[in-house]
Every structure is written in structure tokens, then in C-alpha cells.
Write a structure and sequence with these properties.
By secondary structure, the chain is α/β, with parallel strands linked by helices. 31% of the residues lie in helices and 18% in strands. Strands 5-4-18-17-16-6-7 form a seven-stranded mixed sheet. A hairpin with a 3-residue loop joins strand 4 and strand 5. Helix 11 packs parallel to helix 24. This is Anaerobic selenocysteine-containing dehydrogenase.
């Protein structure tokens, strides 16, 4: 028997509309939904990969597992597993206090709209601030910059509405990030209407080939580039003076701080020619409305907090924020928002809030820095973490320096992974609890709600299309069961993407005598919105919602300004300028994304195995010639912190002096792949102790200085 069902992809923010065919209870094909009013028939290869996982790809786990010994797993009845986990958590809290428990949420958790608020609710009831996530590994420089500089409550403009767009460290044609919903089509459309696009990337990427200008930046030189561009804008008086007068402060301190970043100096460090630097600054500052979008490349590179601050400074100088009167056509359906030009003052919560116990820093955007997680486990003291629950993530792969993270995880009294796969982290866990997969669960497309690049108020509710295996455990039931066993009462709140429990409006207390039904949780989300839940449920392809647009309101000038150049930024700019050049003959590693995988997910799918049986070390052909290397040669790539084996592949689009490899690839445990034949894990080149960012403990994962040598292995 065959049937088709509308739903949406749960892999990333875009929530692309899909049509899934089910035959005899199995999801057999997934196609884009051409009637979907937002994504309009677009989707990417990862939507197909997700279906493979449903059919057992990537080694699906279908029953609760308990580890005894090194790699000895016992199947456990679900209730018994959850009882044991709840009892052990309770005992740990009673003995060591609330801060002994932590939750890490990975990419899989973020897109689970109904369950993830309960992870935050559980920590709240325990009284622990220890919420960590994958966002603090590749996004937190963004938050640091916002909280150090301040920002406008109006938000940034939709990229479709600007005249000049700069994309930095992002390759959306591969990652499918911004511009959303068919990036190639959007970039071509915007180009036809006159938008000028600049791409900053060490590679002449697929996206760069569609741009008006490509700046082939040497990996890790983002700070120098942006300081140089800021200097050019100020020197030529190209800044938006009205915007800066009203919303930005400390321009003179900024002017002084970037003064040493002359054209010659910036060219020498970044390898971008002076004419391209001036052209980029002119296009971005002088074309009309502008917007700078940063990807994970800049957030994972050296001095990422400073680089993000300087990128945001360039954006602010050129007025890259919505102004009074600008129209916001999608203010959101689920969470009401208002838009004004109020300047939200710098807040620096890491200086005054709850502190890490292993490092002089604290909460950023309500999260503890994931880069500090291993030390929060290993460092003795009363606030040491002893129990970790991992929701939809693989922190061992996300963090780098795997020996240290493995050592930390082995020190835990309790490690629980809610994961459908035996990931690197699952293998170290005491318990693995298998959740349903996306097409087996209820969900709302909450991540798309009111987000800047989606112009239509739209809501979609997904019901299960296929039945999950009998022993999988819905994540909402997991948190409910464990909390009940600990004697805690949970409250369910509407918490948006990156939202905080304490800031969310009061919710409703869960009935702790019977598990919450996901449909009831979805009803709660939709309550007090213009949407009738039953109508939404009867419309599996989603509903366009009649939410009035808003013009950005003008607020009275209260004197608050975005701080473009606080003292610590000026000081760090001087430090960067004084840095010594790399050792002769060294390279810089630039990590890249591949179309077939999503961080560490989908590595074992057919498409990934076929196209990337190894993790190639891409090199410029001229560098290969100089090194006497042929495609397929094995090389050792070494940083100050570690080394890995790579297989050379030619890439004519890569600048010289760069090695480019995919991240989150290969085995973190060398015992499982001593010759690194299943791929090379670039996290081996990373240190969680040196070269980490001061505020958010972000480890450097790209732009790392490396040397290469021929490997003895063929
Ligand atoms: S862009 Fe790709 S991964 Fe993201 S939601 Fe769409 S289909 Fe899924």
C-alpha cells in the first residue's frame, strides 16, 4: 500500500517543505513540495540523507542501551533505563549539588521544537546553569559581538532588500544556509535587480562564482581584512554619517585603532590585492542599503570574537540595520515581536553573571561555553560537572582535541546520549536512548518563525508519517520521566531558537502522572496566536497566516549607542597588528563543508560514502608541484597541537598556501582507525587549552597554521 504525505525537513533552519512517499509503512522517497509557499519546491541532498537514516542508515539504534565495560552493551527495557537514569541523576544532585548536572544540545536538538524546551526546564528545576550547545562552538562569536557592541531592536534587513551584500566565510551553495531557499536562484535574482554581491573566502567557491567580487582571503586573516576595510571606509568618508550619528559611538577611537591597517599591510597579510580591497569597501559602503552576513568560517577562525566585532563594525558604519519606516512583512506567528530603532546597550553578561568554575568567564546568551565543557568536568571543585545529558548532538566531534574530551567524558559519573546513532559520544555513554526520527515525530517549524530572511508569516505542523520502532523514546517523554523520577515538577514554556527559559512567558505545569502528548505541546505553542490548531493540523502543507506587517517604529533618542570600539577591542587590534608572520613553508588549514553531510551527521549515507570515502586534503596544484605531490598521495598534516593523515586532492579554486579539509569527519578515537582510512578528523589539530578565545572559550577550528610532510603510508 502506498501513500504520500506533506511534511518538512528537520535538518536546518529552512524547514523545506517535502512530500514523502510511504510504502507498506516505510518511507521510501522524499521529494520537494512544489506548492510550499515559502520554500517553493526547493530542498537539498541532506533531505534524502535523512530518509536513509530512517531506513537504518548511519547505524540506527532502536532500543535503550546500557554500557558495561569498554564496549559491552546490554539492551534495556525503556522504563527501566529511564528509571535508572533518573535515580542516578537524583543521587548525583543530592551528593554534589545542582551544578553537577549539565545538558548539551546539538543540531538535532535545536530542530526538535516540542521537546527541547523540556531540556531547559529540567535544568531550571534542578537549579543548574550548565546548558551547553553546538551553537556556542560555531556561533558564539556572533553573540559576543552583539553583547559587546550592542544592537538595534529593529534587526538586520532581509538580504532581498539590500543593494550590496557581503558574504563572509559562508558557502551557501554547499551549506544551503543564507541566502535561504535556493541560494543560487536568489543570488541570480538579486543580481538581476542590481544587488552587488561580494564573497570573502579562501576558496573561489561555488558561491563566489556567482558574485560580483571575490576576496580570496588567506585563512585566519579576517581581523586584518575587516580592520583594513573599516580604515578604507573611514579614510574616504564613505560611512553612513546619519546612521553613525544616531546609533553608533566611539568612531574616533575606532579610527585610531585601525590606522596601522594600511593597504600594503593588509595586502601582505590577507593576500587580497589593494585594488580589490578598495573596490569591496566602495561597493559595500556606496551602493545604498548594505548587509554583511557571516558564516561559521569566521566564527571558528583565530580571534573570532574580534573578527566578528570588526565585521559588525563595518556593517554598522555602512548602516546595515533596519531604519524607522522600514517594512517588516513577517513579524512572526508563534512569538510576538515589535520592531523599533531602540539601541540595545552593550551588556557583557559574562563579566557579571554566573561564572564557569574552571575559567574566568560565564554565560553568553544564557549558555555556558562548550569549549570549556571538558575542563568543567575535569577540574576539581564543588561545581565540577559529573553528569551530562546529550540531546541530539555529538560534542566529542564538535569540539576537537578528542583525547581531552574523551578523558573528560570517561570521568563522568553519568553520560546519557539521546541519539539515533552510535556516535563517537554515544559510544562513551553509560546509556544510549534512541529517539524517534523526524518523520516519526510531531513538530512545528518554529525555527523559521519570524526569522529575518523569511518574508511570509507561515506555520506548518508535522504529524508522524511512519510509526517509530516500538522501543524508541520521544525526547519529551524522556525529560518528563527523568524529572518525575527525581521528584521534580516541570513547566512547559514556549522557547524559540536560542531562547532562554527565564525569559520565556510562563507556560503550563506538566501533569507528572502521565507523559505529555506531543500534540498537546504543539497546541500550547499555537495557543494565543491567530492560528486555529485544528485547521493547522488539517493542512499538512502548512498555512500562510494573516499577521499584519509592521513598520519599524522610531524611538526617542535616549543617548545609547552601539560601541564600535571599546577598549578591549582597541587593545586586541594592536596585538593582532604586532603578530609575527607564519614560519616559512607552513600552510593554513581551512575547514570546509561538504554537501552530503551535516556536521557529523550522514557521514555513513550512500552519497557521502560514494563521494567522500576519505576526507581529501585539497591543495592548490602549484603547491602540490612544489611539494612533489600527486593526487592520492598520503601526507601528514601537523599543527602545534597534533597531526593527522590526509589524502591529497587537487583544487584549482583554492589559493596557494592553504590546505582545505572537511570538518567533523573521520574517527575521533584512533584505536578504531589507526591509519585514518575512514577519513581524517581535523579536530586533532585543535587545542582546547591554547589559542582559545577569552570570552566564549571558542577553540580555533580553521585558519590553523600547519606543516605538511609525506606519509610513510601509501
Ligand atoms: S536546506 Fe536542505 S537540510 Fe536545510 S531544511 Fe532544506 S532540505 Fe533540509
Amino acid at each position: 500500500m502506498q501513500s504520500t504525505h506533506k511534511s518538512f525537513c528537520r535538518n536546518c533552519t529552512h524547514s523545506c517543505g517535502v512530500v514523502v512517499t510511504v510504502e507498506n509503512g516505510r518511507a521510501t522517497t522524499v521529494k520537494p513540495d512544489h506548492d510550499h509557499p515559502v520554500t517553493e519546491g526547493y530542498f537539498c541532498i541532506k533531505a534524502r540523507a535523512s530518509l536513509e537514516l530512517h531506513e537504518g542508515g548511519d547505524g540506527r539504534v532502536t532500543e535503550c542501551l546500557k554500557r558495561s565495560g569498554h564496549d559491552d552493551w546490554t539492551r534495556l527495557d525503556t522504563s527501566q533505563a529511564l528509571d535508572e537514569i533518573g535515580d542516578r541523576l537524583k543521587a548525583i544532585v543530592e551528593k554534589h549539588g545542582p551544578r553537577s548536572v549539565a545538558v548539551y544540545m546539538g543540531t538535532g536538538g535545536f530542530y526538535n521544537s516540542l521537546a527541547h524546551p523540556l531540556a531547559k526546564a529540567l535544568l531550571h528545576e534542578i537549579g543548574s546553569p550548565n546548558f551547553f550547545s553546538s551553537a556556542s562552538v560555531d556561533q558564539s562569536a556572533r553573540w559576543v559581538s552583539m553583547m559587546r557592541m550592542g544592537f538595534l531592536a529593529s534587526g538586520k534587513p532581509n538580504p532581498a532588500d539590500v543593494d550590496a551584500l557581503m558574504l563572509v566565510g559562508a558557502n551557501p551553495l554547499i551549506s544551503h544556509w543564507l541566502p535561504a531557499f535556493n541560494p543560487a536562484k536568489r543570488l541570480r535574482e538579486w543580481s538581476r535587480k542590481g544587488t552587488r554581491t561580494i564573497v570573502v573566502d579562501p576558496r573561489y567557491t561555488e558561491t563566489a562564482k556567482l558574485a560580483d567580487l571575490h576576496l580570496p582571503l588567506r585563512p585566519g586573516e579576517d581581523v586584518t581584512l575587516f580592520a583594513g576595510l573599516v580604515r578604507i571606509v573611514l579614510e574616504n568618508g564613505w560611512q553612513d554619517r546619519d546612521f553613525c550619528d544616531r546609533y553608533a559611538g566611539r568612531l574616533e577611537q575606532l579610527r585610531t585603532a585601525v590606522e596601522p591597517y594600511t593597504l600594503d599591510y593588509v595586502h601582505r597579510r590577507t593576500q587580497v590585492t589593494p585594488d580589490k580591497l578598495v573596490e569591496a569597501a566602495r561597493i559595500f559602503a556606496c551602493s545604498g542599503k548594505s548587509l554583511l552576513i557571516t558564516g561559521t568560517g569566521i566564527a571558528m577562525a583565530p580571534r573570532s570574537n574580534l573578527a566578528m566585532h570588526m565585521a559588525d563594525t563595518l556593517n554598522a558604519l555602512c548602516g546595515g540595520w533596519r531604519r524607522p519606516g522600514d517594512w517588516v512583512s513577517n513579524p512572526g506567528v508563534l512569538l510576538s515581536r515589535t520592531f523599533s530603532d531602540t539601541v540595545i546597550a552593550p551588556s557583557r553578561p559574562w563579566e557579571s553573571g554566573i561564572q564557569c568554575h574552571s575559567a574566568p568567564t560565564g554565560l553568553v546568551q544564557g549558555e555556558m561555553p562548550t569549549g570549556a565543557l571538558p575542563d568543567e568536568i575535569l577540574t576539581p571543585g564543588e561545581n565540577r560537572i559529573r553528569a551530562l545529558v546529550v540531546l541530539g548532538g555529538n560534542p566529542l566531534k564538535a569540539l576537537g582535541q578528542p583525547e581531552k574530551t574523551m578523558r573528560a567524558f570517561r570521568e563522568l559519573d553519568l553520560l546519557v546520549s539521546l541519539d539515533p546513532r552510535m556516535s563517537d559520544t554515544s559510544r562513551l555513554s553509560h546509556y544510549v536512548v534512541p529517539p524517534p526520527l523526524p518523520y516519526e515525530r510531531h513538530d512545528l517549524n518554529y525555527v523559521l518563525d519570524g526569522i529575518g530572511w523569511s518574508t511570509k508569516p507561515f506555520l506548518q505542523y508535522a504529524e508522524p508519517i511512519t510509526a517509530p520502532p516500538p522501543h524508541v523514546v520521544d525526547e519529551s517523554r524522556f525529560f518528563w520521566h527523568v524529572a518525575g523520577r527525581m521528584g521534580l515538577q516541570l513547566e512547559y514554556r514556549k522557547i524559540g531558537l536560542l531562547g532562554l527559559y527565564r525569559d520565556a512567558a510562563p507556560g503550563f505545569p506538566l501533569d507528572m502522572t502521565s507523559p505529555p502528548h506531543p500534540e498537546d505541546l504543539a497546541r500550547w505553542w499555537v495557543r494565543d496566536t491567530p492560528v486555529d490548531f485544528d485547521e493547522l493540523r488539517a493542512s499538512p502543507g502548512g498555512l500562510l497566516v494573516d499577521v499584519p506587517g509592521q513598520a519599524v517604529a522610531a524611538s526617542p533618542d535616549d543617548g545609547v549607542r552601539m560601541d564600535l570600539c571599546p577598549d578591549d577591542i582597541a587593545c586586541e587590534l594592536a596585538q593582532v597588528h604586532a603578530e609575527q608572520p607564519d614560519t616559512k613553508g607552513s600552510y593554513r588549514l581551512a575547514t570546509r563543508r561538504i554537501r552530503e553531510t551535516l556536521n557529523s551527521m550522514y557521514r555513513s549515507t550512500q552519497a557521502a560514502e560514494r563521494n567522500f570515502p576519505v576526507n581529501p586534503a585539497f591543495m592548490n596544484p602549484d603547491d602540490m608541484k612544489d611539494e612533489g605531490l600527486q593526487p592520492g598521495d598520503r601526507i601528514v598534516i601537523a599543527s602545534r597541537h597534533g597531526s593527522l593523515q590526509g589524502t591529497v586532492r587537487e583544487d584549482r579554486d583554492l589559493g596557494r598556501g592553504t590546505i582545505s579539509m572537511a570538518q567533523c569527519f573521520g574517527e575521533s578515537d584512533l584505536e578504531r582507525d589507526p591509519d585514518q582510512r575512514t577519513g581524517s578528523f581535523t579536530g586533532r589539530l585543535v587545542s582546547l587549552e591554547e589559542d582559545v578565545e577569552a570570552i566564549n572559550h571558542m577553540p580555533v577550528q580553521t585558519g590553523i597554521v600547519v606543516t605538511i610532510s609525506k606519509s610513510g603510508l601509501s
